[in-house]
Design brief:
By secondary structure, the chain is an alpha+beta fold. Helix content is 17%, strand content 41%. The radius of gyration is 18 Å and the shape is globular. The relative contact order is 0.16.
Length: 235
């Protein structure tokens, strides 16, 4: 995915009210920006961190600028969860996940399940075999290169595990793809220390036949795209 224009450098002052952050631009001016992430952004919102912003070019928007990336000593982190589905969609079209090749059509945001859910991607092949794909954005990690999800308790993520189990029980394929918008992660694990209910739910899903995949990203001021598969480890 190409950004509409190169990202703008700034320094983080603080994040607050979940969807807002104050930053300092290179010229010293202060700016309040939109933070498109519902999670805690654990380890990614420390005051003083270098960040990158996108400009909507819409002067009528209340918060014209959006926080896109945080620059850590170990590399860049993409914090915009709104682009995770697009990134995974591009990766699926490129055939980046061997286990999910052979599908001829892709539909986004399709209603499904029993709990008023929408699947991020519905894949269908020429024989009308279907695979329901749920996308999760990963921004949290430890120094040893282990990324984890979620970074805050998430009842919604647990619900999605239940929905995917039902899909498998109905005879379809189901997959969860972790979109790792970090350059320093080599493996993905469930965050049992943050949300043990999700850890239990994802293992139940795996045991039921839900497929787990992870893809890592390459990020710059001009572009972000997923580049390779990562292992998912559930003890």
């Amino acid at each position: 995915m190409n950004y509409q224009q190169p990202l703008i450098s700034a320094t983080l002052i603080k994040r607050y009210k979940r969807f807002l952050a104050d930053v300092t631009l290179l010229d010293g001016s202060l700016l309040t920006v939109h933070v498109p992430n519902t999670g805690s952004l654990l380890g990614c919102v420390d005051p003083g961190l270098p960040v990158r912003l996108s400009d909507s070019l819409n002067e009528e928007r209340k918060y014209r600028f959006t926080l896109e990336q945080v620059i850590l000593p170990t590399g860049r982190v993409g914090v915009n969860t709104h682009i995770a589905n697009q990134l995974v969609g591009e990766a699926l079209k490129k055939g980046l996940i061997n286990g999910l090749s052979g599908f001829t059509t892709m539909q986004a945001e399709v209603k499904y399940g029993h709990e008023n859910s929408r699947i991020d991607w519905l894949l269908t092949d020429t024989e009308n075999n279907r695979c329901f794909v749920e996308v999760k954005n990963v921004t949290a990690a430890v120094e040893s290169g282990i990324g984890f999800f979620p970074d805050a308790p998430s009842e919604r993520a647990v619900k999605h595990c239940r929905e995917l189990i039902r899909i498998v029980n109905e005879g379809h394929r189901a997959a969860m793809i972790f979109c790792v918008q970090r350059e320093d992660v080599e493996i993905v694990e469930p965050a049992d220390h943050i949300d043990p209910q999700y850890g239990k739910a994802i293992r139940e899903a795996l045991h039921a036949g839900v497929e787990l995949y992870a893809l890592s990203a390459s990020l710059s001021d001009e572009v972000v795209h997923l580049t390779k598969e990562l292992p998912v480890r559930c003890f």
